[in-house]
């Protein structure tokens, strides 16, 4: 995958995806956006990658949308307005594709993660952060609605409606200690340990059967919006039956009975 604004580095069934515009604090340019979309489209059919870890190069995770690319136009005709809608929808496409990725996504965050950068971190399944991390729903501070890039979907589900409203209405920064306290992140470590901590989490996930992890992510995401307990039980039952007939499941049982680590198929 030959990209200009992101780096893709496969390492032992883990892909390290690096937002690579350090001179702009990894702000989301149109080029970076389209490359992220292309990458996550490819992930949907990638049966070898087990986990994706997303990080930023330099001193920031991501400073949100690159406002220097804004043209400052006014919607004098429908064509201009439509172009803005198309650009906005591409941001939504990126977030949606991230959630559709069958691989668990881990955000390894250091420094600022604001606006669209915070949204990328929220769209990941887990967040491991450094003590320099600061989150911010910065859209509200730029004259926009705070509800953008899925933030109004993820944030209340992670920390509750009242706390989400507080941060979205004020645009207040969330420091690392606060993020840990309110359950926004999985772990806070010193900055120089963020990548090791993220890899340790990835390795722990990979101790489990690949198909089991993928189906778990699928149903966990569905359960958040499930219309009823019955619907969730239906999805869970379907996946349990499917995994019963896999070699990985049989290997896991054999390993348990033989008191050894299982050896799963690489898929």
Describe the protein:
This protein has two domains: 6-205, 2-enoyl-CoA Hydratase, Chain A, domain 1, CATH 3.90.226; 210-257. 46% of the residues lie in helices and 15% in strands. Strands 1-2-3-4-6-9 form a six-stranded mixed sheet, with helices on both faces. A three-stranded mixed sheet has the order 5-7-8. The chain is an alpha/beta fold. Strand 3 (51-56), helix 2 (78-100) and strand 4 (105-109) form a beta-alpha-beta unit. The longest helix has 23 residues, at 78-100.
CA radius of gyration is 20 Å
Distance separating the two termini: 20 Å
Please give the CATH architecture of the largest domain. Alpha-Beta Complex
Low-confidence sequence ranges? none
**Given the structure, what is the number of helices?**
10
Question: What labels would you give this structure?
Answer:
10 helices; 267 residues; alpha/beta; six-stranded mixed beta sheet; 2-enoyl-CoA Hydratase, Chain A, domain 1; three-stranded mixed beta sheet; single chain
In brief:
With 267 residues, the chain is of the alpha/beta class. Helices cover 46% and strands 15% of the residues.
Q: How do the strands and helices of this protein lay out in sequence?
A:
Elements: E1 6-11, E2 14-19, H1 30-43, E3 51-56, H2 78-100, E4 105-109, E5 112-114, H3 116-123, E6 126-130, E7 134-136, H4 151-159, H5 161-170, E8 174-175, H6 176-181, E9 187-189, H7 194-205, H8 210-224, H9 229-244, H10 247-257
Parallel strand pairs: 2-3, 3-4, 4-6, 5-7, 6-9
Antiparallel strand pairs: 1-2, 7-8
């Amino acid at each position: 995958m030959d990209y200009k604004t992101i780096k893709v580095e496969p390492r032992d069934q883990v892909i390290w995806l690096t937002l690579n515009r350090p001179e702009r604090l990894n702000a989301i340019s149109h080029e970076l956006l389209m490359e992220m979309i292309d990458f996550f489209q490819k992930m949907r059919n990638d049966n070898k990658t087990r986990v994706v870890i997303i990080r930023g190069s330099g001193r920031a995770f991501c400073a949100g949308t690159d406002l220097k690319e804004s043209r400052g136009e006014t919607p004098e005709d429908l064509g201009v307005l439509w172009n803005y809608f198309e650009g906005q929808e591409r941001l939504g496409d990126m977030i949606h594709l991230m959630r559709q990725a069958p691989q668990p996504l881990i955000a390894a965050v250091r420094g600022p993660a604001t606006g669209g950068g915070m949204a990328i971190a929220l769209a990941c399944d887990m967040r491991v952060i450094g003590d320099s991390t600061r989150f911010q729903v910065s859209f509200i501070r730029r004259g926009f609605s705070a509800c953008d890039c899925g933030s109004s979907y993820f944030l209340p589900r992670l920390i509750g409606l009242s706390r989400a409203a507080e941060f979205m209405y004020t645009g207040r920064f969330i420091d690392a200690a606060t993020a840990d306290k309110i359950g926004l992140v999985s772990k806070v470590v010193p900055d120089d340990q963020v990548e090791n901590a993220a890899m340790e989490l990835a390795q722990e996930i990979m101790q489990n059967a690949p198909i089991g992890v993928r189906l778990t992510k699928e149903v966990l995401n569905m359960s958040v919006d499930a219309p009823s307990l019955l619907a969730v039980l239906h999805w869970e039952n379907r996946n349990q039956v499917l995994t019963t007939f896999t070699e990985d499941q049989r290997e896991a049982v054999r390993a348990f009975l033989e008191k050894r680590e299982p050896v799963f198929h690489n898929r």
